[in-house]
Amino acid sequence: MKKIYKKYFILFIILTLICFNLSGCYNINNIDKLAYVIAIGLDVGESNILKLSFQISALGNSSGGDGPQSDNPIVNTVECSSIDSGISIINSYLSAEINLSHCKAIVISEEFASKPISKYIYTLLNNIQVRPDTNIIITKCDVATFFEHSKPELESMAAKYYETVPTSSDYTAYTQDIKLNDFFSALNSTYENPIAILGGVNNNASNSTNNSSDTPNFEKDNSSTSGNSNIDSSGHIETIGLAVFKEDVLVGELTALETLCHLITIGKIDRCNINIPSPFIEGETVTLSLKQKHSPKITAEFINDSPYIRVEPSFEARLLTVNENETELDAESLKQLEDYATSYLNSQISNYLYKTSRTFKSDIDGFGKYFLKNFVFWNDWISFDWNSNFENTFFKVDTNVNVISSLLLMQS
């Protein structure tokens, strides 16, 4: 008798498990009912405070493909008073619900970022769907134009395009991969200020500054920024340089070379190429491949009540520009190249540091953390107000460049 009850009990358990496995979830959203946003745009509104744009993935299966594709994303825009109200308005218009969990970029126009944007950053980071590793881009054109021209050439999916563009910093050092959480952290810091990726639409035809015959060739490369480069591909977006903030307000931008100097200063560069005037032939330029040995040594102290910072970067270098007279450099020429490269980098990094401190008055390198040790109590540090005192800082740059071999062709 007991065996019969045991069999019935086991059968009941099995049937119960089968019922649970076959039952559906009533509240779960089907993929067809969601509109996946790949980029969010913030711009100045004409009839309201905010012009909010969503670049939405156009889902569809390609031949032989398994997943959703987004070759031709859709853009929807609404003028509203806040991000949340804009989402509600768009949801009432679309046949699917806005979903931000796959958003790859937050694009903000320069005009909009010239006024305080902290409340919008807080709102986005507070949204559980927005990922902290979403890139933040400040565009030199309006958001609508940026989205219109964000058509990938080497990627089949627009979402993948937004993921890969900032990674060019790994091999060019002309930009930096800035995430939403990086911006938020610097925004709430007492010893540094935020930066963002600088974006824009290539408009080579109107680039009169870089195309001027009076501008030295190496300066044309070094002074490039998004929307002002020498790339002959008009009508596509580009990310060259960085947008500089003083607290939550945009105050300026960095060129390609200044961005390189920034990455050198904070020790976030592995290898890059740099063009400098030739120390051997007047009017010519040479290209060096630089490899940073380690993060620069930073020494910070107060001298006569003024902040004093010494930056000591160290590099190994190879000369990439080779002609028939420079296939092998003797010891004297090698030393001349090292000294010239050292002097050039000292000058450029120093110019960059004084531009951020005197012109922008914004510590985007986080130098303030090196002065914390001078304040015993936290309230003393807060009262000192590093953001206001950074502009009084003096800098000394001591770069060490070691050209690793004079046998240039043997190193190829």
Question: Any key phrases for this structure?
Answer:
412 residues; alpha/beta; GMP Synthetase, Chain A, domain 3; globular
Give the SSE map:
Layout: H1 2-22, E1 34-44, E2 50-56, E3 74-80, H2 83-93, E4 97-99, E5 105-109, H3 110-113, H4 118-126, E6 135-139, H5 143-148, H6 158-164, H7 169-172, H8 180-187, E7 195-201, H9 217-222, E8 237-246, E9 249-254, H10 256-266, E10 271-277, E11 285-292, E12 297-303, E13 306-312, E14 314-319, H11 331-359, H12 378-384, H13 386-389, E15 394-397, E16 400-403
Parallel strand pairs: 1-4, 1-5, 5-6, 6-7, 13-15, 14-16
Antiparallel strand pairs: 1-2, 2-3, 7-8, 8-9, 10-11, 11-14, 12-13
Helix pairs in contact: 4-8, 10-11
Written description of the protein model:
The chain is of the alpha/beta class and 412 residues long. The protein has 2 domains: 31-254, no CATH class; 268-412, Nutrient germinant receptor protein C, domain 3 (GMP Synthetase, Chain A, domain 3, 2-Layer Sandwich). It has helices at 2-22, 83-93, 110-113, 118-126, 143-148, 158-164, 169-172, 180-187, 217-222, 256-266, 331-359, 378-384, 386-389; strands at residues 34-44, 50-56, 74-80, 97-99, 105-109, 135-139, 195-201, 237-246, 249-254, 271-277, 285-292, 297-303, 306-312, 314-319, 394-397, 400-403. The strands form 3 sheets. Strands 1, 2, 3, 4, 5, 6, 7, 8 and 9 form a 9-stranded mixed beta sheet that branches. Strands 10-11-14-16 form a 4-stranded mixed beta sheet. A 3-stranded mixed beta sheet has the order 12-13-15. Helix 4 (118-126) crosses helix 8 (180-187) and helix 10 crosses helix 11 (331-359). It is globular.
